[in-house]
## 1
Amino acid sequence: MLDNVDKELLEKIADLHEVPTGAYNIRKNGGGESRKTTANIDIINKTDKPGIDIIIKPNTVNESVHIPVILSKEGLNDMVYNTFEVGANSDVVIIAGCGIHSCGTQNSEHSGVHEFFVRENAKMKYVEKHYGDGNGSGERIMNPKTFIEAFDNSVIELEMDQIKGIDSTIRDTEIILHKNAKLIITERLLTDGEQKAESNIIVTLEGEDSSAQIISRSVAQGNSVQNFNMELIGKHKSRGHIQCDSIITGNAKVSSSPRISAIHSEAELIHEATVGRIASDQLTKLMTIGINEEEAEEIIIKGFLG
């Protein structure tokens, strides 16, 4: 049974105000809370370890799957292994995400290993949001690992957001793109206080005419620390672009290391990275219309993270 805390977490991480339409699997405090399958999307428990298999039939279009995870008890260490099979010619949206409510002194942690196999000509949008709240002193920890293999002519769009309230995270993402497969990653990350975040992304352009665009935007506040390590590997005629932009305030620290490796003469790869404070002219412009400095910073940061 979902209580008000659970419902608030679901709203933050999956925009759910009620039971979603389509297929879904809601996981709460280490166990299954509720599930629904459809004629085209099946969800099956793994038998050898905690987690589920999500099987999307070929030619499934305009359908969605919600698989949010919520932790509202202290002291939990939840680990799941999820496998997604996205059938050929499908066009689907998968909405995941994890919310942790800290209510005590013990740490709460969720770690997930997610494998995706996106078959030929399929299109998949994957949205993952991480969020933490609560007044407890226990740390909220999330360590997701994502592996995606995108087959010929598939299109992958990833939105990976850490909204607020996560004390420690290490996010590992590895993607292989086959012939003419296309990838767009948008990562948004906000840390504050003593929080730490690390994002490691490796994309291999394995197939001819594959392409990837990685856009990472972050804001580091207080004494928080962020580390970004991103790599594009071009093994065939391909195109790739990495762009990492960060705003830093207070005593925060940001380290960004985009890397490109061309192993084919027709691999076209670009990387860019910027780290800086909020421009003073932006603050001044907003303050001239009656907004104080703190409010002006909030507006700029909100716009920057999109």
Note: The mean pLDDT is 93.
## 2
Amino acid sequence: MNQALYQDRIVALAKSKTGAGTLAAPTAKAMRDNPLCGDRVSIEIRLDGEGRIAELAHKVRGCALCEASAAALAPRAIGHTAAQVAELRREIDAVLSGASGGTGDFAAFAPVAEHRSRRDCVTLPFEALRAALGD
């Protein structure tokens, strides 16, 4: 196991399972797979009357990076519109490219910048959320 990739913060995020589960009445949902590694993410959201994410739940069958990414994304996406979620995607892309250190839990993914093949594990929850939002 690569210690830089699976540092304590990533493991703690993955174990936290923040936002894991399902919603009683989602307004939208989407699933995305990574055929290269087998990760699968399902996202359910409930939007409020202004198009903001009121609730978000996810199910992840995947590696610790994918689980940690979904756990980091879930609380950050609440209250956001599709455009604001796109900003979150740009932030994680900047972290994964090494252009930025990121903020909050997104900073935990900075070591992934050195492992190009693992970047999709981190972005898969973002792709599922984008699909749920209809983008």
Note: The mean pLDDT is 94.
## 3
Amino acid sequence: MKGFILSLRSEFYKSRKTLGFWAAILLPFALILITAIGYYVKSNELKGVPGMISWMRLAGGTISVMGILLLPMFVIFIAYSVNNIEHKADTWKTLFSLPIGKWAVYSAKFFYGLNLVFISMMLFVVFTVTFGNLLGLIVPELKFTEYHMEWVLFQIYFKFFLSALGILSVQFLFSLIWSDFLKPMGLGFLLFVTSVIAVQKKWDYAYTLPYAHPLLAYESMFPRRSNLPPNQIVVDVFTQDVYISLAISAVVFIAGFYIVQKRSVK
């Protein structure tokens, strides 16, 4: 456990100046800032609607963009960024020869990437709530203060996080094996496009493709229940795609360690 914590801390110090680290913070900030500015510019047309509708309009654009397009690409890039540090410095052999178990080094790297994705998802919640309340103070007629969306937003982005873990495991392995940019990123992008097509064509087994899980999670997020009151939003977090994403993540994570052990990492 001590080796794992030391390796995890080392990952933070190595990556804190990289694009991957700052992307995890700046992506949610930039997306929600742009959305909030657009909302403010059109605030005269949006006054008077119920607070719940205002929150859904503010958060909805970012949620759909993340679920349909950006989340898989973001996770592919984070997995590449975490391992690229060692590829660029040519320190894989040094890293695996340290008096720390290979399992601790491998798992710390993976969990560091996982933490970056989790922090980024939680920042989407924090920035959405912050900018929504700020808009409510600047333009009270938008009625943001009349409705609380914190728990719903947390569930939405937590579901996104869980649905992305399968992609993270696969891409983590790709970027560990291949040192160049094109192979892990290009293959990840190709698998993502293939998965989107499979979902759009309603292929029966699209749920088995990890790159399809964020999109499936987005589509299955809001169950249609006629008995719900009109001012209540229910998020179905643990759906089939999430369970399969978790299973794929666990299997690939463990298998990846044995694959890396069997081959020499350059």
Note: The chain has a mean pLDDT of 86.
## 4
Amino acid sequence: MGWRAIARSAIGTRHQAQQQPCQDYGAVMVAAPKALRHRHGVILGAVADGAGSAPHSALGARLAVATTLKYLAMSEAWLQKRQQSWQRWPQPPPEALMQKLFAKAVARSQTQIAQQASAKGWAPQDLACTLLAFLATPDWLAAMQIGDGFIVVRYGGAPAQGDYELLFEPDRGEFANQTTFVTAADALATMQVAVVGRPPAFIAAATDGIERVALRLKDWAPFAPFFSPLEEYLAETPHPEADDAYLMSFLTSERLNQKTDDDKTLLLCRCDRYCTEWDS
């Protein structure tokens, strides 16, 4: 029982025109020794969107994602040293426990960002970014979100038996393009955390550049025709990290760029348990 997963980013046309770098970043990993990853059941993912107003937010996004994944992986390594695993957790962990885990991961990200900023003579806010992360097993999912972007999940069985569900509503401020960043003083106070005791068959995490084509903005309902082809792509692609042409073609397509000029990041995961059901 393993996961198929991929995370890719594409620069927005606005940043291309302004000769700025892509300020998004995303990564996904299976929390197991390399030889066991193809059959292990604990997957970790994170995406971050650098603030357009922050001059070094691309670096902040990378630091936030890398530090968060490293901390979450350490929690699984700590359990494995004791002959345990998140995968063997008898029930979904209490939300208070995962709130504490994610808060520590965010705190470490904030420290890394502050240290990098100090070393270069910048303010931490110069590396401002959002952050979304999750830890999932074939039986449950825990996730957090600071700022905008989204995590959409389909639980259990074949597509016809489950709908795509949004975990958190994006954090929108009072004004357009306003949200909360990891570097904000109230970042942890605004952090949303959820633990869902249902088997996640498909997980999609993304930055806000894709919100308007993936979600119905009036009520934040996931748009199934957007997610179904992406899930089918994972079901039909045994090694998506090595076969990313479909996803990159989509992220850089003229059709998508006509609807959003922002950077775009998509992180997709599918539990192998359900690939056979999709194909049948």
Note: The radius of gyration is 18 Å.
